[in-house]
Amino acid sequence: MYRILVVDDEEKIRTMIKKYAVFEGHEVSEAQDGMEAVEVCRSEAFDIIIMDVMMPELDGFSACREIRKFCDTPVLMLSARGEEYDKIHGFELGVDDYVVKPFSPKELMMRVSAILKRSARGDGEPQREIVSIGGLTVDFTGRVVTIDSERVDMSPKEYDLLFYMVKNRGIALTREKLISDVWGYDFYGDDRTLDTHIKLLRRTLGGYSGHIVTLRGVGYRFEE
C-alpha cells in the first residue's frame, strides 16, 4: 500500500482518482489547491503526489517548486494543456511524469505504479560504476554527472534517461524501448514526452550533446 496525495480544485477529478487508487489498495489524501498541498506535505509524508497544473491560490508548477525545497516525493502532473512548453517547465521542476486531461484512470494508475516501482528499485545496495567519456563523467552510484569537472544539476528524469543511454551506449534504442524501460510503462503513442526530455538533456549536456544521436524513424543512440 502506498500513500498518495491527490491535488486538484475539481472535486470530481479527486473523487475519480481516489476511487481507482483505493480500489488498488492505496491510501489517499486530498488537497484542493497548491497552497493546501504544500502545507499538507510539510506535515505528512507521501509516496507520490498527483497534482493538477491550473488551480486557484497556487498553481501546480509553483506548488511543486515549493515542495521540492523540502522533499523529493515523486510528482505526476495533470493538465488540460499539452503544449511542449508546459511539459518542459514541469520536467525542469523535477516532475516525474505528465498526463494530459482527459485521461484514462487505468492508464493514470499504471503510470503511478511505474513511478513507485522505479523509486523502490533504488532501495537495494547499488553496484559501483563510473563512466567517463572525455570531459563527461557519469557516476551511477552517487547519481552525479560532471562536465569538465563541474557538477551539473538535472531533473530526476534527465538522470534516468542519461544513465540508461550511457549504460546502453553504442546500441540503437527504439523509442518504444526507451519509453518502456525508462518510464516503466507500456508505450501509449505519445512520444513527445521522450522528445522533450531528449531536448532538455541535450541542452544540459551542452558541448557533449552530440553524443546523443538521432536515428531517424527508429529512436536514439548514445555514442562514445
TrEMBL record:
Cellular compartments per GO CC: cytosol; protein-DNA complex
Positions of the DNA-binding region: 128-224
Keywords: DNA-binding, Phosphoprotein, Transcription, Transcription regulation, Two-component regulatory system
MF terms (GO), sorted A to Z: phosphorelay response regulator activity; transcription cis-regulatory region binding
SUPFAM superfamilies referenced in this protein's UniProt entry, alphabetically: C-terminal effector domain of the bipartite response regulators, CheY-like
One GO term of the biological process aspect: regulation of DNA-templated transcription
Domain Response regulatory: 3-116
Start and end residues of each OmpR/PhoB-type domain: 128-224
Alphabetized SMART domains for the sequence: REC, Trans_reg_C
PTM sites of type 4-aspartylphosphate: 52
Signal sequence segment: none
PANTHER family: REGULATOR OF RPOS (PTHR48111), TWO-COMPONENT RESPONSE REGULATOR ORR33 (PTHR48111:SF1)
Function statement: May play the central regulatory role in sporulation. It may be an element of the effector pathway responsible for the activation of sporulation genes in response to nutritional stress. Spo0A may act in concert with spo0H (a sigma factor) to control the expression of some genes that are critical to the sporulation process.
Name of the protein in question: Stage 0 sporulation protein A homolog
Organism of this sequence: Harryflintia acetispora
